[in-house]
From TrEMBL:
Domain of life: Bacteria
Domain Mvd1 C-terminal intervals: 207-333
Biological process, per Gene Ontology: isoprenoid biosynthetic process
Molecular-function GO terms, alphabetical: ATP binding; carboxy-lyase activity
Keyword Lipid biosynthesis: yes
Ranges for domain Diphosphomevalonate decarboxylase-like N-terminal: 16-181
UniProt keyword terms in alphabetical order: ATP-binding, Lipid biosynthesis, Lipid metabolism, Lyase, Nucleotide-binding
Coiled coil regions in record: none
Keyword Transferase (UniProt): no
InterPro entries on file: GHMP_kinase_C_sf, Mev_decarb, MVD-like_N, Mvd1_C, Ribosomal_Su5_D2-typ_SF, Ribsml_uS5_D2-typ_fold_subgr
Descriptive protein name: Diphosphomevalonate decarboxylase
Length: 357
């Protein structure tokens, strides 16, 4: 294996965000989840990451040498987290210490506002680093050439940067965390696209942007506050039960059961934040207005819309694709006035991460 086969090179990867249905909230060492989670993979909320590398005359002894650009500007506020992640990746990919990296990243959606920007960003970066290794290294183990093993490695390594990132490279839906599902693991996610009932195969997600600013409490801090949360153990048991139930719902196509479970998970997530010490609230007044409007619209029309929330104030309006025309009218007529600058993201299930030419 020749680690110096190439002096320089580049690659570009694109990874989507994902929206958790059963929430991951609470973690152990090295981003191991306290409970399993299930998510829908998105299509339009995504991160594009370009990676360039140039071999150094003298390898680094500990810290990976890199420059990071976000939307064309150096972003020092991200540097510490990326440095920590790259140093951790050097344990998995030692050749990183031989190169100077230039990382350029762009989002199609606001970062740090509760749309899982770290999930798409870390998934794209992990994919790029693995791609770099494959380009530089002449001899590649045969199992790494198999797509399933490649996806699994992207999932596992992206998890070390952001837990929810491990779900982003699978099409349509993914499960992360050990449970009864075959192949499930705490170390990486597995795709669920093959088990979905037809009604769940083309699901829409309207992301209603209540606030595009950075959250006052980061998700990393929120996870840490689960340590000592008086409802933590009960929550983890509930999440395991909800994971098993949702797996059956996704197979059966039971939309009523889907709505009940998904909305309860969203409210539980924010209740856990309020019950932390110190407690905090990420929902805004317009978040609650939108939630009530969605529930009222569902009751009045019978259209199976439902909401979920990530760790932020923005609302994800989930619904089957064949209801898109009336739901978009509902958004325009009743919801958009509660969105900042009347902005929302028209999203849907996507195909996961991909390499760009």
């Amino acid at each position: 294996m020749n680690l110096d086969a190439k002096d320089s090179g580049h690659c570009q990867w694109q990874s989507p965000s994902n929206i958790a249905l059963v929430k991951y909230w609470g973690k152990k060492h090295e981003q191991i989840p306290c409970n399993p989670s299930i998510s829908f993979t998105l299509k339009n909320a995504q991160t594009t990451t370009s990676l360039e590398w140039e071999r150094k005359d003298v390898p680094s002894s500990s810290d990976v040498d890199f420059t990071f650009y976000f939307h064309g500007q150096e972003k020092e506020s991200f540097r510490q987290r990326i440095q920590k992640y790259l140093n951790r990746m050097a344990e998995e990919i030692p050749l990183l210490l031989n190169y100077r990296l230039t990382i350029s990243s762009e989002n199609t959606f606001p970062h740090s506002s509760g749309i899982a920007s770290s999930a798409s960003a870390m998934n794209a970066l992990a994919a790029a680093l693995i791609d770099m290794e494959r380009q530089i290294t002449i001899s590649i183990p045969s199992e790494e050439t198999k797509q399933s093993k490649f996806d699994q490695r992207i999932s596992r390594l992206s998890r070390l940067g952001s837990g929810s990132a491990c779900r982003s490279n699978y099409a349509n839906a993914a499960l992360w965390g050990q449970c009864s599902y075959p192949g499930s693991s705490d170390a990486y996610a597995v795709g669920l696209g093959t088990i979905l009932h037809p009604v769940f195969q083309q699901y829409k997600d309207a992301i209603l942007l209540v606030d595009q600013g950075e959250k006052k409490v980061s998700s990393s801090a929120g996870h840490q506050l689960m340590v000592g949360n008086p409802y933590g153990d009960v929550r983890y048991q509930e999440a395991r039960k909800n994971t098993e139930n949702l797996l059956e719902i996704l197979k059966s196509g039971d939309l009523d059961a889907f709505t009940t479970l998904v909305e309860a998970e969203a409210m539980t997530l924010h209740a856990l934040m309020m019950a932390s010490s110190p407690g905090y609230i990420l929902m805004h007044p317009n978040t609650l207005i939108i939630i009530q409007a969605i529930q009222g619209y569902r009751k009045d029309t019978g259209i199976p819309v439902c909401f979920t929330l990530d760790a932020g104030p923005n609302v994800h309006l989930l619904y089957p694709d064949h209801h898109k025309d009336p739901v978009k009218k509902f958004i325009q007529d009743e919801l958009i006035s509660y969105c900042v600058d009347r902005q929302w993201i028209d999203d849907e299930m996507g195909s996961g991460s991909r390499k760009l030419k």
